[in-house]
Amino acid sequence: MRRPRFIDPFEPNEVRRLVREFGSPLLILDCERVRLQWRALSKALPRVALHYALKPLPHPALVQTVIAAGGFLDLASTGEVQLAERLAVAPERCIHTHPIKRPQDIANARKFGVRTFVADNPDEVRKFARLAGEVRLLLRVSFRAPGAVCDLSRKFGCDPEDVLPLARLAADLGIDVRGLSFHAGSQASSATKHVEALQLCARLLAAARREKLGSLDTLDIGGGFPIDYTQRMPDIQRFCAPLRTALAKLPRRVRVIAEPGRYIAGPAAIGVATVMGRARREGHWWYYLDDGLYGSYSGQLFDHARYPVEALRSGTERLPSVLAGPTCDSIDVIAENLMLPALKVGDLIVGRAMGAYTWASASEFNFFPKATVVAVNTHPGDTGGVTAL
Ligand SMILES: *Cc1c(COP(=O)(O)O)cnc(C)c1O
Fold first, then answer.
1. Handedness of CA 296, 298, 300, 305 (dihedral sign)
2. Ligand 1 in contact with 179 (CB < 6 A)?
3. Domain boundaries, the chain
4. Omega of the bond leading into 25 within 30 degrees of 0 (cis)
5. Which atom of ligand 1 is nearest to 118's Cα?
6. 222 Cβ inside 6 Å of ligand 1
7. How many whole angstroms from 223 Cα to the centroid of ligand 1?
8. Is 204 helix (H, G, I), strand (E, B) or coil?
9. Distance between the two ends of the chain, CA-based, in angstroms?
10. What is the rounded CA–CA span in Å between residue 375 and residue 54?
11. CATH superfamily of this structure's domain 267-388
12. Nearest to 371 by CA among 40, 35, 59
């Protein structure tokens, strides 16, 4: 039996030990950090029920940590529903938020016991006609967020002027419209869009209530809460301050929920890769790692993120270096002109803030396997509980 103890995933010797035990590349998920992120966001948004959106890192240890912290889940696919089911999460703690679903996806979520779904157009509302009475809907509203790194209102959501007609359709079909939802864009630099969307949704909710189009007691303010990568962002208290002011003005009966993803998962994991080989090209060292743009660093492409990377080797002299991924594709380069000490084969490279939209979007292109996820500090207050996926 391993003696229970706290593992600091940022301690170089712990990283080396985990690589010896579980191999490379790794994604080390620190469940204690998940709890800290959860608490910080709960404090910044008091009385808001937090539903962790699984998409950025759908890992069992993370889901269990969120549930143990008293949290809720935001599921968006049959695979995510099955993960929640496998972990015996109470379905009442889950909502399903994908605005476009196959009938089978709806059936699977219903079979598990989810009751709250999202729709943003008449066809989707009609998919629930035969389930009227057993489900309730959140109508997703679109507010374009050109300032956000990832604008999530282009692909989903109805225009604000279409909300009332959609709510009337649902009411005609006997489906309870529970409220409205939006996603103001991921990694937002300020809460301006959240606040604007919230205020407009509050007005729409009131208008729909006047027409008695459903219970209309829920406002889902989505995700988007930012974290530090190579660029610093406002801390979460400051980021949420204008949101708290806006939330305080809502009528008491309105229940507010949020769907944080990145904020919970991002800072909680580091990526660890190993130098497989090196070459000097045009006067610079190129280091070839066993993880790259097709793996955990896929977020650099899909999520437009830049992770703070460093070598687990000290050295005063730093040289402009190139970090490349393992595949034979020439775009598979993580960073150029990075100031690093001279590295040898076998040295470790650590990327911070790599929990969100990294491993989740990795592929096994060229048959280079995805990083193994190792969850540490899986039980509050301890531990040394280490599990590998
Ligand atoms: C991706 C997603 C989230 C999580 O967004 P973050 O910006 O990572 O917080 C929340 N809700 C929905 C519907 C999503 O698609």
1. negative
2. no
3. 31-265, 267-388
4. yes
5. 13
6. yes
7. 5
8. helix
9. 19
10. 16
11. Lyase, Ornithine Decarboxylase; Chain A, domain 1 (2.40.37.10)
12. 59
CA distance 349 to 126: 51
Contact 175, 137 (CB under 8 A): yes
Which residue from 140, 153, 145, 257 is spatially nearest to 190, judged by alpha carbons? Answer: 145
CA distances from 175 to 52, 80, 115, 153, 329 (A): 26, 25, 12, 24, 51
Residue 189 alpha carbon to ligand 1 centre in Å: 15
Q: Does the beta carbon of 262 lie inside 6 Å of ligand 1?
A: yes
CA–CA dist 52, 261 (Å, integer): 6
List, for residues 262-271, the tens digit of each pLDDT value. 999 999 999 9
Query: What are the beta bridge partners of residue 95?
Result: 74
Amino acid (1-letter code) at residue 324: A
pLDDT above 90: percentage of residues in the chain: 89
Residue at token pair 């490279």: 349
225 CB within 6 A, ligand 1: yes
For residue 146, give both structure tokens.
């050109």
Which positions ≥6 away from 245 have C-beta within 8 Å?
A: none
Taking a C-beta distance cutoff of 8 angstroms, is the pair 31, 62 a contact?
A: yes
Instruction: Tell me how far the alpha carbon of residue 350 lies from the centroid of ligand 1, in angstroms.
Output: 26
pLDDT tens-digit series, residues 189-204? 999 999 999 999 999 9
What pTM does this model have? 0.94
pLDDT in tens, 341-377: 999 999 999 999 999 999 999 999 999 999 999 999 9
Q: Give the other-Cβ count within 10 Å of 174's Cβ.
A: 11
Fold of 31-265: TIM Barrel (3.20.20)
Q: Among the options 31, 94, 240, 328, which is catalytic?
A: 328
Residue 115 has phi, psi (to 5 degrees) of -115, -25
Q: Which amino acid is at 10?
A: F
Encode pLDDT of 264-323 as tens digits: 999 999 999 999 999 999 999 999 999 999 999 999 999 999 999 999 998 889 999 999
* Residue 178: C-alpha distances to residues 3, 98, 138, 164 (Å): 48, 16, 6, 13
Active site residue 328: yes
Residue 184 CA to ligand 1 center (angstroms) comes to 9
